[in-house]
Amino acid sequence: MTLARPTCREIEPDLVALAAGEALPAAAAIVETHVAACPPCRNELAQYRAIEGLVGELRHAPLSDADPMLARAHLESRLADLRSRMVSFGLFSSPLGPILIARSELGVSMVEYLDSEAAESRLARLVGSNAIESRAQTEALYRELDDYLHGRRTRLDWPLDLRWARSDFQRRVLETTSRLPYGAVTSYGHIAREIGAPSATRAVAQALRWNPVPIAIPCHRVIGSEGDLTGYAGDKVDLKQRLLALEGVPLVTHGAGRVMRRAMYVRYQAGSEYCIPSCGELPTTPLAELTLYGSRERAEAAGLAPCSSCRPDLHPVLHP
Amino acid sequence: MFRVMAEDAFEAVVAAHHAEIHRYLVRVTARASDADDLSQETFLRAFRAHRSLPADANRRAWLFAIATNLFRNHFRNEKRRRLAYTAAGAQMSTSDHGRPDGRVLAGEAGAVVDRVVAALPLKQRLAFTMRKMHELEYDAIGRSLDCSAESARAHVFQALRKIRRGLDDLAPVKTELTP
User: pTM here?
Assistant: First the structure.
């Protein structure tokens, strides 16, 4: 039924749409009917179709002076740089309490106990930078940590990203500390000696106070010169006790706690043997010259042989 | 162990869309070097944001929106700079938005399309380029231009009408026009 024929003006939008291939079937039919009887509109339709043809040519014309491959190469290098700065972090409920693990492309960059104010401020700093919460990126790390905290593994062989260490000094302290084996303890003074700065005991303690990756870098194995546990992660000396107990280090746990030096095997300086604690001058030797082991197994796992004079293999230390 | 999966996913985004986004920016900017910078910035922004993007999001449309926003900011700054040139600026605006790459369309009609498109108001020009050069859906174009799909379509049709009038001013285009 043909009621009032639509005017040329009325069909114009549908005519443009038809030429562009976008008209709905009903509208297309109306336009087709109209142009069949209206030469000027037929011309318009043909013109618009011609424009579509020109536009199609334009679409396929090469953009000759553009170099997308070069632009892409530049982009890739910027992205690589950005990626190396990015960290992913995950929050987990560990046996030691809520814990954050953050990692970059290079390695683990932060392990944080989360209920202290200091930790919250570090987390805030992370989030403010290129940090993204991603359990997927950190879950495998947490599983290893959980195994460690349950005694199912004795090492966390994580690649570490220490770019956020505060100084080269701190990096040296952290690297030296990272070599302290499972089940062994030594003093801040010992680490200071190891890095060739024997008078820097307090600076070593300060550097370890800001250890960005506790547990992975076992600063809990570093203690005071009298065998006292001093501090850990702010006010968490109880965690230090638990980590050391897990490794079989004999402890007196009242107060801040201390290691039972007389119940531990001893390595003198960088020697290749381990002794019972009463061997020779050892009872009066400063802890800064010693490394203590919670058990013979731990000393031998660290590559030490039993001392040929005190024979710890024949006269083991009796734990009280 | 330390390959990062989410970032691999982004590599796929770059592989799939960089060439096209770059081409889009070459089309809308006057200089290829601007297109290089803007496409780089587009993907750096996308990289920072893509992890919070829903898995089923239309990444292509999203990248066009980022690129378009960056270009519009860039264009505003350029325009401000160009205002300092007055008369020279008027001359530049035609030659500048012409084919920066010396690409030549067959025939005068092609040149008219080029010239008309270059002189279009910004939103029309962008809508036209996204629709006609990259065949984007109108709702994606609308998202890029902060308008509805209907307005996006209206911008494209306005552009087509202007091209149509531009052709009228010239010798008629050869068509299979019947008397």
Answer: 0.64
Every domain of chain A with CATH number 1.10.10.10 lies at: 168-306
- What's residue B8's pLDDT? 56
- Give the separation between CA A84 and CA A236, rounded to whole angstroms: 32
Query: CA geometry: angle at B71 spanning B67 and B75, to 5°?
Result: 175
Q: Do B51 and A132 touch (CB under 8 A)?
A: yes
Cβ pair B167, A51 in contact under 8 A: yes
Domain coordinates of chain B in residue numbers? 5-168
Which of A52-56, A64-68, A290-294 is predicted most confidently?
A290-294
> Cβ contact (<8 Å) for B157 and A16?
yes
C-beta atoms surrounding A157 within 10 Å: 8
Q: How far is residue A226 CA from its own chain's centroid?
A: 34
Facing residue for B32 by CB, picked from A47, A55, A65: A65
Count Cβ atoms below 10 Å from residue B170 Cβ, excluding itself. Answer: 12
Which architecture, in CATH terms, is B5-168?
Up-down Bundle (1.20)
Three-class secondary structure of residue A320 per DSSP: coil
CB A111, CB A174: distance < 8 Å: no
CATH code that applies to domain A83-149: 3.30.160.70
Q: Name the residue facing A66 among B5, B18, B22 (closest C-beta).
A: B22
Catalytic position from the list A8, A38, A41, A219: A219
Q: A265 exposed, middle or buried (CB, 10 Å; 0-12, 13-18, 19+)?
A: buried
A168-306: which CATH topology? Arc Repressor Mutant, subunit A (1.10.10)
Decide if A219 is catalytic: yes
B126: helix, strand or coil: helix
Any idea which of A105-119, A290-304, B125-139 has the lowest mean pLDDT?
A: A105-119
pLDDT tens per residue, range A151-164: 999 999 899 988 87
Task: Note the ipTM here.
Answer: 0.79
Q: How far apart are CA B116 and CA B97, in angstroms?
A: 10
Summary count for chain B: helices (H), strands (E): 8, 0
pLDDT (0 to 100) of residue A166: 83
The tens digit of pLDDT for each residue in B128-172 reads 999 999 999 999 999 999 999 999 999 999 999 999 998 887 655
Specify the domain boundaries for CATH 3.30.160.70 within chain A.
Answer: 83-149
